[in-house]
Structure formats: C-alpha cells, structure tokens
Amino acid sequence: MNADGVRDRAQSLPREPGVYQFRAARTTLYVGKAVDLRDRVRSYADPRSARIRRMVDRADEIEIAVTDTETQALLLEANLIKRHQPRYNVRLKDDKSYPMVQLTDHEAPQIEITRDPNESATVFGPYTNKRQVETVVKALRETYGVRGCSDHKYAGRDRPCLDYEMGLCTAPCTREIDLGSYGEDVTAVERFLEGETGILADPLRREMEAAARDQNFERAANLRDRLETVEAFHGEGGEAVQSVGDERAVDVLGVAIEGEDATVARLRAEDGKLVDRDRHTLEAPDAGTADGTRDPEAEGVPAVLAAFIVQYYAERDLPDALLLPERHGDDEVAAWLEAEGVSVRVPGAGREAKLVDLALKNARRNVGGRDECGMLADALELDSARRIEGFDVSHAHGKSAVGSDVTFVDGSAEKADYRRKKLSDENDDYANMRALLEWRARRAVEGRDDRPDPDVLLIDGGEGQLEAARGALDKVGWDVPAIALAKAEERVITPRREFSWPDDAPHLHLLQRVRDEAHRFAVQYHQTVRDEVKTVLDDVPGIGPETRKRLLGRFGSVENVREASLADLRSVAGVGEKTARTVKERL
C-alpha cells in the first residue's frame, strides 16, 4: 500500500477512538490504537521508521473497529495482539486477554463472558475488571432471564434446568417463554450493554427498596452492592480512582533486550516486603533492514514496557504503584493507568531505585538464555519440556467424578487444548487417575486426539497417583514421560527419584502453575456435573417450584441446602418445621 492509498483510506475513517489493523493476504501485520482513527492512520503515509515503512508497503488493506472510549481501544488492541500475534507488534508470550460480553447469534441468544468471541456474535467490551463483569452479567440474567448455557445443553431438552429454578433463565429451550418475548428481553440486555444504565439499575433499586421494606436487610445489602457495581459499570476507565492510604502493592519492572528477544523481570512488594518475582519473555517486532542491520527505532525499553504493562495485566489486578527503569512513553497507557489509580514512577535514588536495579539484574540474567521450560527439561534430563499436560480428578465421596487435562505451551496455558472427562463414580483416586490417563493415552495412540503429544505429563498427587498413571500408559503403550507433584511438600516425583527444588526455582513455579490449573479446571467441571445431576429437591414433599427457587436462591446449591441447619432452613419463606425436617431426612 503506497502513501496515496493510506491517505485515501484515512480520509474515510471517523474521528473517534478505536483500533486499526494493517493486513496482507488476510494476515494481520500490525495492530494499533488511536484516540482519533483518521489522524493516526493518516500518519502512516509518512512512516517514522524503516520498519514501519516496510510494514505499510506489505499491507494491502486497513481494517478498523470503533470503540466508545480510549480505554476500550487500549484493551481491544491488547486482545487483538494476543489473538493474531502480528509480526510488527511487541508480543508477550502468554494467553491472557481482557474479558468481553457476547450475545450469540442464535434463535435464543446466550449471554457469555469470553476472551475469544465468536465472529457472528454481538460483542461488548473489552473490560478491565472481570469480577465486575461477572456481577453485572448475573444481575442481567436475574432481571431478564437470558440463558447462560451452551447450545449443546440448550438443544433437545424436555424440562428446564436448574438455572430456571434459580431464576437465572426463563427457559426458552422448553418454551416456558416464547421466543418473541425472550427476544425483547435480549434487546433490553443489549440496551444496557450499549450504555443505558437505568434499564438494569432501576429494577435493582426497586427490588432493593422492597427488600428493605420487608426487613430482609441481608438481601437489601446484597442488592445495594450489586446496584453500585451496575451504576459504575459504564464509567469504567473514565474518572480517576483516588488511592486511599499507603500503597500496599508495588510492582517493579526491569527490561533487558538482546537481538529480537526481550525479557521483563517483575518484582512484587507488599507492605514494604518482597513477596514474589518472575520473568517473562516477549517477542520483539521484525526489525531487520534490507542490508541486515537493526532498525534503531523498531525496538527499545519504552516500547517493551508499554506492551508488557497492557498485556500482562489483562487478567491480573493492577498494583497500587509501578516502578520503572524509564518512562514507557505511551500516552494512552499513561491515561489508563492514571484512571485506574496506579502511580507510575521512575526512581533516581533511594530504596526504590535499588529495587529497579534488582529487577534489571533479574531481567539480564534471563535474556537470551533458557527459560523455565528449558530449566525443567535440564532438571528432569528430558530433550524438551516445552509442552506439558496436567491431570487431576475431582469428586464428592465418589459421586460426580470427573477428570481434567490442561495444556501449557512455553510456560503459558493453551486453553484451546484443554479437555475434560466424566469418570465412573468411584471413591478411589488411584482408580480415577488410572481411568483418566488410559482415556488420554488411547485417544493419542488411536489418532483420535488432534493435539501434539506432550513432552511430559504432570500428575496432581504423590507416588500412588503416579503409579496409577504409569500403569495406564504401559497398558496402552503410550511412551510419554510422566511425573507427579505432591502438594504437601511440593516434591517432584519421577519413576527413578524425587526432587525437592528451592521454593524460588522457576521450573518448580512452572509445575505449580500447571498443577493448580489442572486442579481448578477439575473442580469447576465437578461442580457443573454435580449441579446438573442433583434434582432431589424435586422429590421432597411440601417443596414446590417457588420454595425450591427460594431455597436455591438462599443457599446457592443443593449441597449447601443439605449442609444448612434446621434453623437456617426455617428462615426461608414457605419452609416450616415439618418441611425443614423432611428436607434434612431426604437430602
């Protein structure tokens, strides 16, 4: 694309915030953000460096997406960089991105929080605070009954699911609500997400006032907190948040660059004490020139810092303060951090400067060297540990048994390669682990798993779980190294020996991340299966649909109803002494 082509395209663009993509043959070369799309894109007609000039010459089209605010443009840019991995952007090697809300393209649209929206869906966001988004989506579902289930669960139902009983869904799947009325509710949800706060805030306020009049003060307080979140939702990233009290959490960043590799070391200080440290590798943009030299404007500490800050904190809480070795130089990033109440400093002397020096030493120690995957491979005497699969099982006294299989590549979660498996109900962790690994191994050996074979399998557990897993692998004939990580003492167990690595060993931290994610994914699936199969409240005499709804609304799950005391049960409207005792007996 020549300079005239860029100018012509820019002339048609709006003077609004947004994100632009330079593309060639349907491949994204570069993603950028802009306060004014027209002015920013027009600037590429006169590129500021040889690298940018090469990128513009290669491009054959420019795509844009308009956003409501400059903050949304900043966050959307980070998401697109993670998704497309454009050659000319600085890219952090992890899978984090900012959450969005999508309404699927379906006869009865599903509302979902996602980091990878469907192309056909109506998408809102991105947002910085996932917990705030979760609160708002739950409030939308309780108010308008929009379904949250997958299309697979929606199809072929002959009775509503538990969400209907809990008042979270109006059950269009079984036509408890007709599709026309459901569509009106979806339109109301869209109006709220487009900025019409009152369409959700007003019914919440009325419900809060009614609860207060009925002296249901706990319910009123919960509604008040939810209302505050809803009313603040569309103000996210607008006015600055004032910090209160002393800075508790401070992140210190150091950067080292060697060739096309960049390393950022992060130190975390809480209440004045160092509590954590880690290192992260970034891919610098292609900066080579025709004569093989480096383009001095194509890279640098400021560019790496700006890219790292936005991409790293995609799924993490921002600290109260950031200490940097030098200014990152990105006005949009600076405005975002200021709006989020983060103090950014480049200390010149004193204790803070010493912390920055320490972070720089940590960064330089890793740049151009082997990462934690390489260190793990060395420690275990493996050719590679780049691709790791982690396994765990979860059940409740043998009921609703499930297994998880998570994948990490180059130290980061590869969520597209996660798998899960329902297991036979058996109160035997070894047998469950054996069944899970046999299932995985057979799929690999028979060519029914489209994922590459891992370099190593990590079992959540001790010697018994590892022996069970190895027995399954031997039975099927899948030759992949397997190790275990025992929680109690964080011992790494292999078939030949055990390791007790230092607490700050990077390769131990890698295994802990894989183990913890396998555990989280297994527990999450177990809870889903458990809630799907528990319908015993339906058979309790004296418990009708409304009382069931109130019980589940009060306690959250059948499991919690089972554990509640008689007094707690009797506190629910419609549940007397006799009914409460019946519930306890039946559950």
Strand content: 15-25%
Uncertain runs are: 236-245, 286-298
Helicity level: 40-55%
Global mean pLDDT: 81
Distance between the termini: 70 Å
The number of helical runs is 21
Number of strands: 20
- What does the largest sheet look like? 8 strands, mixed
Globally, the shape reads globular
Indicate the radius of gyration in whole angstroms: 27 Å
What does this protein look like?
By secondary structure, the protein is α+β, with helices and mostly antiparallel strands. The chain has 21 helices and 20 strands. Strands 13, 14, 15, 16, 17, 18, 19 and 20 form an eight-stranded mixed sheet that branches. A six-stranded mixed sheet has the order 4-10-9-8-11-12. It has a three-stranded antiparallel sheet with strand order 2-1-3. Strand 17 (456-460), helix 16 (463-476) and strand 18 (482-486) form a beta-alpha-beta unit. Helix 5 packs across helix 10 (217-233) and helix 9 packs antiparallel against helix 10. The longest helix has 28 residues, at 506-533. It is globular and about 80 Å long. The N and C termini lie far apart (70 Å). 38% of the residues are buried. Residues 236-245 and 286-298 have low confidence and may be disordered.
